[in-house]
Amino acid sequence: MATATHAAPAHAPEGHTSTGINNTKLGMWAFLGSECLFFGALISTYLIYRGRSGEGPFPSDVYDIPFTSVSSFVLLMSSMSMVLAVAAITRGDERRMRIWLVTTALLGMVFIGGQIFEFTEFARAGLKLDTNLFGSSFFVLTGFHGVHVTVGILWLLSLVGFSFRRGIGQEKALAVDIAGLYWHFVDVVWIIIFTVIYLVPE
Amino acid sequence: MADETTGTAVADEETPQVDAPVDPTIDAGAHDEPHHPRPSTYVWIALILSIVTAVEVALYYVDDVSDTTITISLLVLMVIKFFLVASWYMHLRFEARIFKQLFYGGLFLAVAVYAVVLGASHVFPILV
Predict the structure, then answer these.
(1) What is the pLDDT of residues A57-115, one digit of tens each?
(2) I want to staple A93 with a disulfide (CB 3.0 to 4.6 A). Which of A76, A88, A199, B88 is the partner?
(3) Which residues of A37-67 are buried (b: 16+ CB within 10 A; e: fewer)?
(4) In terms of pTM, does the model score above 0.95?
(5) Looking at beta carbons, which residues of chain B come within 8 Å of A17?
(6) Which pLDDT does position B21 carry in this prediction?
(7) Residue A132 has what pLDDT?
(8) Neighbours of B27 (CB within 10 A)
(9) Do the domain assignments include residue A33?
(10) What is the Cα–Cα distance from A180 to A82, expressed in whole angstroms?
(11) Residue of A nearest to B125 (CA)
(12) Domain membership flag for residue A170
């Protein structure tokens, strides 16, 4: 009796699948889909507790919209530099890829620096994690986003380091593409946070 | 068949390309990357994103318009920015359908969960 086997043929090239869809990329998109739920829960919590804080400081007391607007602009521009890094390595231009990756990481650091400054200012104004519902939901949401940006920065810098040590050729462009997906996701989450948390009137 | 440099699913070489839409933003000369736009397109997208962000911030300071109008305008602009980044920078408009389903499926679920929780909080205020 013939038996069916699902093992990949020995001569199949690395990354090749019967569906034509790369498993690494599929896994990354599944992860990003689950991250939508993660941030969705945090944003929902913020919105549901919005306006329910018994005592201040309230959002209008501490938000510095001009400052946060500049931070948002910096993160948006980091998305552009990230996609230019992916475009460069797709063309096989590793030197330009490194430049754009370092630029992206630096812009990410500026954003994180701005967030640390903002948190410090809020704390000086009397808003801490346990002050009120606004403080708890705001710091948890934006804090987790900041952690994601920090992970992204480390990922980008490790790619730059790997590029210098072993080289990232056109054949490994997928590694940069995957990091880019993560970075852009962090950016789209901030697009939502900036509008819904900071700009929409209470 | 998959494009091994980016993992993008592409049509098999033997598959006849019938009535393929011509997108002027796609670099026709890059035979190895038929689905990726030119770098200049990315810069244009960044410019549009910057302008939309500037409009959002300007709306925040508008006083003589109702909060409802401002909220709806801000949400529309947010959605535009979201889809610009997802479609062009994350290349979702060029990707296999399964990637779009995974990402937008997660997004839809997140919005649905929020809607349910918000609705429940109004019906059963003691919950929150």
Answers:
(1) 999 999 999 999 999 999 999 999 999 999 999 999 999 999 999 999 999 999 999 99
(2) A88
(3) eebbebbbbbbbbbeebeebbebeebbeeee
(4) no
(5) 2
(6) 42
(7) 94
(8) 18
(9) no
(10) 6
(11) A48
(12) yes
State the ipTM, two decimals. 0.88
The total of structural domains in chain A comes to 1
What CATH number does residue A145 fall under? 1.20.120.80
**pLDDT tens by residue, B76-112:** 999 999 999 999 999 998 888 899 999 999 899 989 9
Residue A35 falls within a domain, yes or no? no
Assigned token pair, A139: 């710091």
* Residue A120, min C-alpha distance to chain B (Å): 23
Chain B contact set for A196 (CB, 8 A): 75, 78
- Quote the pLDDT of residue B123: 79
3-state SS, one letter per residue, for B56-101? HHHHHCCCCCCHHHHHHHHHHHHHHHHHHHHHHHCCHHHCCHHHHH
Domain extent at residue A186: 65-199
Nearest to B89 among A26, A39, A184 (CB): A184
The answer to whether the Cβ–Cβ distance between B5 and A90 falls below 8 Å is: yes
Say if the Cβ atoms of B42 and A83 lie within 8 Å: yes
Nearest chain A alpha carbon to B76: A195
Distance of alpha carbon A187 from alpha carbon B117, whole angstroms: 25
Span A103-154, pLDDT tens digits: 999 999 999 999 999 999 999 999 999 999 999 999 999 999 999 999 999 9
In this complex, the residue of A80, A171, A174 whose CB is nearest that of residue B42 is A80
Residue A110, in any domain of the structure? yes
